[in-house]
Design brief:
The structure is a single chain. The protein has 222 residues and is an alpha+beta fold. The chain folds into two domains: 48 residues; 131 residues, 2-Layer Sandwich (Beta-Lactamase). 45% of the residues lie in helices and 14% in strands. The protein is built from seven helices and six strands. A four-stranded antiparallel β-sheet has the order 3-6-5-4, sandwiched between helices. It has a two-stranded antiparallel ribbon with strand order 1-2. Strand 5 and strand 6 form a beta hairpin. Helix 4 runs antiparallel to helix 5. The protein is elongated. The protein starts with 6 loop residues before the first helix and ends in a 5-residue tail after the last helix.
Length: 222
């Protein structure tokens, strides 16, 4: 009685016997397969070549994608470096918030920026950035464990932006010392582009901006 083999059994047999076609080379040249490219009949060697070409194409696409991401990351690092350099050479504490916001706009091409600080030193009691933000804003900032990104322009802080009426997406970042649950300020970035600060945007980089801004501005606290 002839044993019956299904396709899975044949595949397992060939996998376990890699030298099968070495022993029966005539089968290698005689096998005819259907190509997914045009449906024509081709040899096993031609089909193998097609499979390899497809794999190479996929690898090339993946490599191109990785190269693009690497270039984008290099650009982000360069912009961040530029921003930090500007902060390091700033000498006037009173103008430091203005310098920080202007540097963000220039380095990261952010159209609109603003911030507020609370519990500042009495030396800055009359400064624009020390105007009382209110208990609701403070409570909102304290609860903001991660930067907010999205199109809800009714969020706290958006009204501080000069062109608030034209803003379509925002990033809102709480300023705090290290891992303290209590915030001491709120940094707001806005754009007329609804996709600029989309809710799908990763917030890792915004966290770094918040940490650096917090370290820069902590000297203004009382």
């Amino acid at each position: 009685m002839t044993a019956q083999f299904d396709s899975h059994s044949v595949a397992l047999y060939l996998e376990d016997n890699p030298h099968f076609f070495d022993e029966y080379p005539e089968l290698m040249t005689g096998l005819r397969l259907s190509s997914p490219l045009g449906g024509r009949t081709i040899s096993l060697q031609e089909r193998q070549a097609e499979v390899l070409r497809e794999k190479i194409k996929l690898l090339e696409l993946k490599l191109a994608s990785l190269s693009r991401v690497a270039r984008e990351n290099d650009l982000i690092i360069e912009k961040f470096h530029q921003w930090v350099q500007t902060l390091l050479v700033a000498r006037d504490p009173l103008s430091l918030p203005d310098t920080l916001l202007q540097a963000i706009r220039e380095a990261f091409d952010v159209p609109s920026t603003s911030l507020r600080l609370w519990d500042t030193s009495t030396d800055y009691a009359d400064a624009w950035f020390g105007v009382d933000a209110g208990s609701e804003v403070r409570a909102f900032a304290d609860k903001l464990a991660q930067p907010y990104c999205g199109t809800d322009t009714s969020q706290h802080g958006v009204m501080w932006l000069e062109d608030a009426a034209s803003i379509r997406s925002v990033a809102i970042i709480a300023l705090r010392l290290h891992a303290s649950p209590a915030s001491f300020g709120l940094l707001v970035l806005g754009s007329p582009d609804p996709q600029r600060f989309s809710s799908e945007l990763a917030t890792d980089f915004l966290c770094r901006i918040g940490e650096t801004a917090s370290a820069t501005l902590q000297g203004l606290l009382g």
